[in-house]
Amino acid sequence: xxxxxxxxxxxxxxxxxxxxxxxxxxxxxxxxxxxxxxxxxxxxxxxxxxxxxxxxxxxxxxxxxxxxxxxxxxxxxxxxxxxxxxxxxxxxxxxxxxxxxxxxxxxxxxxxxxxxxxxxxxxxxxxxxxxxxxxxxxxxxxxxxxxxxxxxxxxxxxxxxxxxxxxxxxxxxxxxxxxxxxxxxxxxxxxxxxxxxxxxxxxxxxxxxxxxxxxxxxxxxxxxxxxxxxxxxxxxxxxxxxxxxxxxxxxxxxxxxxxxxxxxxxxxxxxxxxxxx
Length: 277
What we know:
The chain is an all-alpha fold. It has nine helices and two strands.
């Protein structure tokens, strides 16, 4: 980042305003998904089945079953199921709130400090006579590439919101109800969540090293989902396979929230320094 882009970042009229509170709240909403790991550990600790619960062989949904008994040949008894289902709902709401509050234009370049998004410019970095940051010669990004990036970011927001809605459904409809909505919600979470991370990771590959982490999380989750579909989950360790579908989504979404929160904080710090001068 050059001194020129720093000054522009601190003083430009943003569209959207990168330092806006709504974006900070959206980023924190994404980060809130990490509470799932704490809740899961607590619920596993309270497990009362005939056999100890194992992450390797036990399904995640078993932890949210609202009644004890045999379910598909498994002895399921989760006294803390309310906590698990509440965690599913909170996780889903965090993803949905993040998808709603984080604009597509911001998401496209959220990991690249110093790139302003100006109203009506049609592309980033085209404000007050300054050249954009895209090329070594100072040429601004091509409008077609910028439009494609915003479209991809919009798709990522839609997919993230869909995944969030899916896990909310899982929280409200436990597996022991026998409702097809439980399976549908889980598939929404796994499929849409993995695809959302693939899109975000692709957008951020050249902007932050975390782009590779997010892309990798999406790839692992999608590969595990395909493997689960091909095998029908008839594998030696179905719990491990299911967690390879779900855990990377939680990690990837939280990583995206961290990147955006850092960008917002960076912009706020620059503007505070500019006002002080």
